[in-house]
Amino acid sequence: MNTFLYRSLIMALMAPGWMSSAFAEPALPMELIAKPTVMTDQMGGVPHPSKNDLVRMHQSGYILRARNGKLSRLNVEKTLLPHDFPMTPQGVQVDLGADNTLFVRLTNKLCKSKDGGRTWTSHLINAPGGYAISQTGRWKVMSDGTLICVSVISGEDERAAARVWESKDEARSWKPRSKIPLNLNVPQTGHPYDARYCHRGLERLQDDTLLWFIELREFSRERTEQEQKVLKHHALFYFRSKDGGKSWQGPSLMGDWLNEGAATLLPSGRILATVRYQRDRISQDSPDLVKHMGAYFKTPDRPGFKNVFLMNSNDGGSSWTPPRMLTTVYGQTFGYPAALGDGTVVVVHDTRYGPGPPGSRALISRDQGQTWEDEVYYLDSTNFPGSYTASVVLADDTILTIAGSCTDPSISGFDWENVQDKTDLYSIRWKPVTELHGPT
C-alpha cells in the first residue's frame, strides 16, 4: 500500500467525531450500565510499574502481574514478527485457521505459524481487485483455512455496497463471495447518513459465525468556531453470516456511540463483545451516570465516556444486552477479549492517557465476564500512547496475544505518520495465573 493511501486511512481515523470532542447534543442514548465491578485506575494494590520497568520487561521473557499488593513476574514466550512498512499499532490482527495454524496480517505480508506462535514465516499478499488494503479491514480465517475479507469505501457520502471476498491460497488471489447492501439510515432521526466508517470491521467467532460492523454518522448543520463539523449522532450497525459469508442477515443496530472492539464465544455459548463507548455528557444523564465519566486531558471541564464497555448476546448475535462498564479511566479504550475453557475471560486494553506509562494491560474475569478481579497483567511497553492488541486461544488454553508496540525513543504523542515505520509486532504466549498456582 502506498504512502498516500496509508495517510488517507489515518485521516479517516482522525475524522471529526472519532477523535475530536466536537459533539452536538444527541437524543437520549441507549441504556447504559455504568456500575463497574472493579476500578481500573490502579489495580492489584500496587503502584504502576515505572517506564524503565516496562521497557526492561518488554525486552525480556516475562510479563508483570499485580495482585494482592504484590508485583510479580510471569515467564512467557515472546517472538518478534517480521517487520512491514507502513504499519501502525492499529493494524494488529490475528486468527486461527485449520490445524491450529496462526495467521497475522500485516500491511503487505501474511505471517503464518504452525507451532503456536513460536516461529513465523511470511509471504507477500494482494488485496481484492480494485481495493487498497486499507479498504478491506480485518481479514478472518475460517476453520477450513479459507480467508474472508469485506471491502468497503469509507468516508462522506459513500453509498456503494460492501463486497465480500474469499481466498483459498492465503491471500495471493481472491474471488467474490457476496455483497452487503448499505442502504441505511441513522437511528433516532431516520436521516440518510452523512458518513460511514469501518474501524471495527469483520469478526469471526470460534464457531465460524461472521459479524461485520459499519459505523454511520450524521453531522449537525452547525459548525464550531474552527469550522469543524459537529457530530450529531453515531451508530454501529452489524450484519451476521452463518455460512462463511455467502449470505448475511441484517442490518441490525448494535447501539449508539459504539465503535472499536471484538467478540468471543464463551463456554456457556453466549457471545461477549467489547466496545469502545465514546460520547460527551448530555443533559439527560443522571447524576449517578455522570460520576462515572472521565474527562479528556486537554479539556478537563468536558466530562464524557471514552472507555471499554461489555455486551453479551444470548442468541448467536441477533440481539445484545445494554453496554456495561469495564474500564473506569477515560482513555482506556481499545479492548480485545479472549475466553478460556474454564470460564476465564481476558480483555487486553490500552491506557493512552495514564495513569501509568502507556502499554497493553490485561484484565481477568473468572466467571465468563460477569465480574472482574482486582488483578492486572502488563504485557508490553510503547512510546506511542495508542497500544493495540489482538488475541486467540490455542488448544491447550494458552493465550496468543499479538501486541503492536513502538519503542523508538523519538516517538511521543499521537504522531501516526511518524510511527508507521517504527511499529513492531510481538507474539506473546501466556496464561493467567490460577488461584491454585503462583507465578513462575
User: Which percent range fits the helix content?
Assistant: under 10%
Q: Please give the largest β-sheet.
A: 6 strands, antiparallel
pLDDT averaged residue by residue: 89
If helices are DSSP runs of H or I spanning 4 or more residues, what is the number of helices?
Answer: 4
Question: Rg, please?
Answer: 20 Å
* Portion in beta strands: 35-45%
The number of domains is 1
The CATH class name reads Mainly Beta
The CATH topology name reads Neuraminidase
Overall shape: it is globular
| Span of the ends, CA to CA | 43 Å
Supply the helix-strand structural class: mainly beta
How would you write the strand order of the largest sheet?
2-1-25-24-23-22
Describe the protein's architecture and organization.
It is a single chain. The protein is mainly β and 440 residues long. It has a single domain, classed as 6 Propeller (Neuraminidase). The chain contains four helices and 28 strands. The strands form six sheets. The protein has a six-stranded antiparallel sheet, with helices on one face. Strands 10-13-14-15-16 form a five-stranded antiparallel sheet, with no helix packed on it. The protein is globular, with a radius of gyration of 20 Å. The N and C termini lie far apart (43 Å). The N terminus is likely disordered.
